[in-house]
């Protein structure tokens, strides 16, 4: 691992100022479960770490209007176990508990979870070309091992998937990310937080390097909606998603879909909000046939690779099955 | 002094230790190489196997991904700190009684992880297999719960068949 200097930020403004000076050489450190691993692999080589794990971003607070503000420093395990989250946003608890292991969730933070990097094998192997790690070097996955890579939203430059479970639930819950930057605080919808790779796959998000994620805010939950997070993976626990689905469904007494929120994980470079499927469902009947049709609509845009065609059918069937389970 | 060397203090198994460490050192490095507490094992060194699990400020954590400088002032319990003198911790005794190991390399991590896990269940933390996420109160640890909650600890000998009953026996006593 490359030698680095370590400093502890006194407050958010100090942390941002520390990074604004030399953003390419400096990284924020929170739980470290992804960053330290990447540093050991040589994927990340910062000259300095600014530790933000002791800043005052460790609370879960109710906000006016019935929403919830979650500090970026809240540990994944604490958030999953939070009584308010379990009662009002069980989808978020379920997604968190589907990710990583107990002893990782105890270290990992909400901010770090959002900003974790892809587990594409070529991104983590510094001996392989990878446009995300070394822009312009090429994508090894296009013709290589891409069985578990993206079918939606990828580009000719990168087909990596975003690994977070938590972020898939947040996408379905219309979360807003609060950021402290060199120009002050700002808030952006989760969908505007992540970007698609295009010809700049090295940028996972729309943040600038000195931006510090300080909180995630959830709007009040739709009261009548039932929700579920379902994750398909290669073993029963402690494994990244092949495909996952976060869904919230609100059906009126007459059987008509009043509201539907759907997001997919494991299929795209970012949590994939399934807006086409949602639009196909709202106002129509909540039937197995309608769910299958909506799932089909969403997957029409899929562009699978040689060895991940199976994900198209898997995602389609999983969306339909999860929605049926919510009836 | 190079700026990549820093002095930190750790409370390990009830004893305070002040050491100068490279900023790159993990908690695992410091425990094994500076404090000679070699019960904590280096497995994958990537947070994937759980062999390095310790109880860090009251919670189980992988020590291989925890930079020591970031945990200055922390309270750490390792496998060496679980027993009460000559009397083994109930989990240690249960692993012996149930023959819950073969080579033993993953065992310190399994036991420290189980110790943290039992506290989590007692505090009412749900898991991915808990039927009712909203239910309050301590979680009853059946075999499925134990397997799910212990999935961060791998045993390459495949001693799970005895690890699960060993942990279950301690969970049942509580």
Helices and strands in order:
The complex is a heterodimer of chains A (327) and B (174).
Chain A: E1 5-8, H1 12-21, E2 26-29, H2 35-41, E3 48-51, E4 60-62, E5 68-71, H3 76-81, H4 83-88, H5 90-97, H6 102-105, H7 110-115, H8 166-172, E6 176-181, E7 184-189, H9 190-193, E8 212-218, E9 226-232, E10 243-251, E11 257-265, E12 272-273, H10 275-281, H11 288-299, H12 310-325
Parallel strand pairs in A: 1-3, 2-3
Antiparallel strand pairs in A: 4-5, 5-8, 6-7, 6-8, 9-10, 10-11, 11-12
Helix pairs in contact in A: 5-8, 10-11, 11-12
Chain B: E1 5-12, E2 15-22, H1 27-34, E3 53-56, E4 59-62, E5 75-77, H2 90-97, H3 107-122, H4 143-149, H5 160-173
Parallel strand pairs in B: 1-5
Antiparallel strand pairs in B: 1-2, 3-4, 3-5
Helix pairs in contact in B: 2-5
Regions of chain A with pLDDT < 50 over 5+ consecutive residues? none
Succession of helices and strands of chain B: EEHEEEHHHH
Number of E-type strands of chain A: 12
Major β-sheet of chain A, in short? 5 strands, antiparallel
Bulk shape of chain A: globular
Helix content estimate of chain A = 25-40%
What would CATH call the architecture of the largest domain in chain B? Orthogonal Bundle
Q: Give the terminus-to-terminus CA distance of chain B.
A: 50 Å
Summing up helix and strand content along with how strands pair, one would put the structural category of chain A as alpha+beta
CATH topology type of the largest domain in chain B: DNA polymerase, domain 1
Query: What is the distance, rounded to the nearest whole angstrom, between the alpha carbons of the first and last residues of chain A?
Result: 52 Å
Q: What are the segments of chain B in which pLDDT stays under 50 over at least 5 consecutive residues?
A: none
Mean pLDDT of chain B: 97
Count every beta strand of chain B, where a strand is a DSSP E run of 2 or more residues: 5
Mean pLDDT of chain A: 97
